[in-house]
Design a protein that fits this description.
Elements: H1 12-38, H2 46-59, H3 74-79, H4 81-85, H5 90-113, H6 118-126, H7 129-137, H8 141-156, H9 160-173, H10 181-190, H11 206-234, H12 239-246, H13 259-266, H14 270-282, H15 284-297, H16 302-316, H17 325-329, H18 332-335, H19 343-353, H20 361-373, H21 378-404, H22 410-433, H23 452-456
Helix pairs in contact: 1-5, 1-7, 5-6, 5-7, 5-8, 8-9, 9-11, 13-14, 15-16, 16-22, 21-22
Amino acid sequence: MQWWGMSAPLRTGECSVLTAAFAIRLAFMIYGMYQDARAGLPFTDIDYGVFTDAARFVTLGDSPYERDTFRYSPVLAFTCVLNVTSHPLVGKAFFVVGDLVSWVLIKKVLSQQGGSETKSLSAAYLFNPYTITMSTRGSCESLTAFLLMLIVCCLQCEDTFRAASCFAFATLFRLYPIIYSVPLLLYIDKQGSIFVHEVDQKVPARTHDLTTAAVVGHQTSCASTGTSLLKGMFSPRKVETFVHHMKRVDIRHNFSMSFYSAYLATEGNSIFMAENFQSRYTCLIPHITVILVIGIKYASDLPFCLFMQTFAFVTLNSVCTAQYFVWYLCLFPLCVPNINILRCLGEWNSANRSTVNSKDVPNRIAQSRRRKRRIDSPIFTCTCIVSWFTTQIGWLVTAYSLEFTGVCNFWPLWALSTLFLSVNTWSIVLMTSMHTPATMRRCFTSPNDVTAAELVR
């Protein structure tokens, strides 16, 4: 089992880990069937029923967009066809397999990067409660994570053509990966050896530009070809796949603080309708600016750049649901080695162990106070992590009481959404300040090494 030259087949220990992870997810799926049948609050995501209904229309030869509220890629409807023809859990099992394969790719990338924390970091994704719950509830985000990992693996193996193909399909499957266009092109442009090896001085410099243009053209052609092939069947409502997500308004299950203004606008208040419209499109300016700045500044460290872009995109988006967290959780293990979370703690420990002269005590006390005020100090780091979890728990409890018990607590929920946005913004500043510049280590460091394409053959 080789992933475009990443390494040898899976080891016995890795197979055991995958078996344990699959068993846990299978138990969740079985429990989900019981909760769906007995409990008032269903376990299965409501969108999973939408996927299945769209697949049912596909089996009848109709467009999946005949199903109201299906606003996803038609590819997703085809992946759930077996839900109709065999068993309703087949689609969930398919999403679970996407989780497991994503873990394999994460582990392969981390093993090429080096370091002793490969197992723990990869396990943080595989046994993460978020990823387990989302895939077993019927969320398709694990497939998006799989495509993102394929892009990183292909670039690590210097296989730009396949990386472009995966990127085009990922954009066709889910629209949001288009934000990665700038850092991907900048990364390819800076890593000149991906196109032309340094030892080959006879290749003209213009070839580099032509190859870059070819990559862009390949991405565009893949997306346009896929759209044109599906045009005949899906043209009546093809706008639902892309345009809807640009103007989507969500007043439930939305962590964004903009949910409240959207809720007031749905009540027919003309003042709030105008303010919601203006604020929605005004907020796009800082949203796009932050994403572009991160993509340009950190393009050389591709895993960290993709993670920070996704984290900022989800944080500042007007619709922020729990399933969106999987978008950046799959990338987080790849960038942890380049985030010195305990850097200041190590400085403090080394300072405490060292011999201090009595004359230097005032200076050491002043330095210690300055470190405590630094935004990347351990105190700030631990507080940020705890705040990220506690604000989510508080938001979920408040949202549950609002939606299922009828308690009118919009103001506390809006306040928690504002606090959650502040914590996420704090996390962005914290991680960028603790980032250590690094470049992604490629699979083949010598021009004479075998290429990924040869390994595939």
